[in-house]
Amino acid sequence: MMSLYEVLLFAHVLAAAAWFGAALLSLAYVEFALRADNAGAVVTFGEYDDELAKALFIPAALVTLVAGVALVFEGPWDWTRDGWTLGGLVLLVAIFALGVAMILPTGNKVKELGAAGAPAAELRPLIERLRLLSRIDVTLLAVAIFLMTTKPF
Question: Is 6 among the domain residues?
Fold first, then answer.
């Protein structure tokens, strides 16, 4: 029979994998659309990405957070002695803030301008900004996963 710790660990890893996979997929889609010079595809994807945020990004982030905090209390970990736990929590907050404060508004602006028929030249700088923010997001998630798996400090 699985222990509570094992159930929490499975939920934590599965949610983090879903979150990272969705972020990587979003980045890849923006990258492919930019390379194809297809701003319309990014606008369409933005509509799907909003739904993906509600159905996957936010729930996965919350499960990752709740299960991770529970793992610290259930397992042999400590917030101060095991610096990677606090590092992971700080990264999670930073990733969430990046999404809410920068990625979401930029994506909404792309969708809004795209729906209004803005020319590709007007959309391109915003889409490039979205690509940069997405790269930062994926990188921060990868660093968080590195901390969680290697526990370097």
Answer: no
